[in-house]
Structure formats: structure tokens, C-alpha cells
Amino acid sequence: MLGKDSTYREFNDEDDHSEEMQSPDFFRDVVEDGEERHESLSPEEDAGDSTPPMRVSKACLKNVFTVALIFVYLLLTTVAAFLAYQTISDFLEKLNHPVMSVTYKEVDAFSPPGIALYPGNARLLSCRHHYHDHIPPLVDPGKPQEGDCVIKEVTYFGLFTNQTKKALVVRGPSDVRSKELIFMQFSLNKTEEDFSAITYMLFAKFSDLDYSLNKSEFMRDCERNYSTWTFSGGFRTWVKMSLVRTSGKSNQSVEFRQESAVVKFNDKRPEIERSNQLFFVVFEWRDPFLQEIQLIVTANPWSSAAILCGVFMALFKAANFAKLTVQWIIRMRKRHLRNKARQQGIIN
Length: 348
Description:
With 348 residues, the protein is of the alpha+beta class. The protein contains seven helices and twelve strands. The radius of gyration is 53 Å and the shape is rod-shaped.
């Protein structure tokens, strides 16, 4: 009974299935189902089936990587050019502005400087050497007295005024340990000026005047290279000198610096003699230290040249890489256009 029932049931299923296949609605459903499946496939999936997606991704990555490399090398080129400009600017700045190295050298004696005085209408009364800052009391001020200074008189045409100038050049003090000084007196009988003063100038060595063949030209050169100062009448002007020597690669110069103090003269002369105005001046070295200034150029041409060589090599490498990259991009573009044309011909 069980076998008959199962057999009967299978035959009934097959009959039912055959009846469905024979019905016209069955083929309509199959066709509509196939159309729905065909419509469900998008054009992107069709294109994706025709070309592999990994190939497109690699091409994009190559293009992005190439653009990034070009950008990086352009940035490095800009940095290298800026570094070259900065190196050249720093080198020129250091070359034009050397660093000063200041040293102090202690000496026992200086070379006697030259003290050029331009008294004009004033008359030199006395010039004496003293030691240990001791100046004895004045005896008969306003009258000529004996002196022990070495004095030379030079007449020449002035550098700026082009007029005849008369200079009294005195050999200055040298023994700085014993505090050697020179004390000078001048008198001026009558003057039409509202303010009376005597101009003086200091130069490095008095012996240079002795050895010079043209003393007038030597004084003109001193007037060109050294500064001038003044001291007025009715006072005692105490001048303390210091010497500064500047040396560099190309030139050497000597400069005097001074500190001056003024003390009023208590004139005890009779009223008749006071018409003669008196001038007093003292010259002395300030201290036994010679100041030496050396100009040092910190710019090193070899290091700057090495930096510039490295920068130019980097620029050359960057330019060469950019050239090869552009050539590769052009070649890849031509290959792409050639493949596209070939595919177009196959489709046609």
C-alpha cells in the first residue's frame, strides 16, 4: 500500500508539472524573469566585465604618484634656489661688515706723537716737560720763559681753505710709566674775535715729520686723516690722550682719542697786564694700554663655494629628473592614444 501511494503521488507531481509547462503563462513568466535579470545588470557592471578594474587603479596611482613627485621636486628646487640666494647674501654681508676684535696691549712707553698747534696771532710763551703729574706754580704768567720742548715750524697751504697756515709741531710725551706731560703757555695781546681759541691736531709719530721730504705735503695728509680740537683762553685745558690702532686686510689706521678737563685760571696779574689773554694746555697719556682693533672677515669663501656647489648639483638633478618625468608622461600619453585608436579600429 505504501509503495502504491508513493508511486501514485510521484505521478501526480509529474502530471502537475507537465500541466504548468503546457500553460501559456509559464513561458511568459520565464521571459519576463530573464528580462528583469538583464535589466538589473548596470552599464558599469557591463563595462567592468569588459575591462579589469585593477588596471584602471594602477594607472591612476601612477599618475598621482608622478604629479606628487613633480610637486616635491619643484618644492626642493625652490628651497635650493632660496638657499643659494641666502648663502650669497650672507657672504656679501659678512664681507662688507667685518667683525672687530679689540685687544689691549700694555706698553712702557709710546712713540712720541706729533702735536700740531695753530696759534694764529697768539705767541708761545713756554713749553716744558714735567713728570708725575706735578706742575710747579706759575712764575710771572704772561711773560716768556725757558722751555725744553722740541718744536718745528711748518708753513703750508691748508687742505680745505687753500690759505697759508702756520703750524707749531711739538714733540709729544712718551714715558707713560713716569707720567710724562707737556705744559704750554700762550698769550694773545689783542683780538677782534668774540671767542678766542687755539686749534691743535695730533698725529701718530713726530719722527714721521722729520723723515718726510716734503713737510708741507705731510701736514696736508695729516690734516686729511686726523681730527682737530681746540682749547680756549683763560683756562687750563688738561688733555689725556689714548692711541687706537686699527688693522685689517687692506689698510691700517691710527686714531687718537682724548679726554679733556678744563680748570679756570685765577688771574692775579695787575689790571694793565690783563689785556693779554693767556692760554694753558697740558698733554699727557691717559694709561699705558695701547688699544688694537683688528677687523676680521668671518665670511669663508671655501665653505660658501661648497654650499653653492651642492645647491647647483641639486638643481641640476631636479631639472634632469623633471625632464625625464615629462618625457615619460609624453610617451605614456602617446601609448594611450595609440591603444585607444587601435581599439576604435577594432570596434569599427
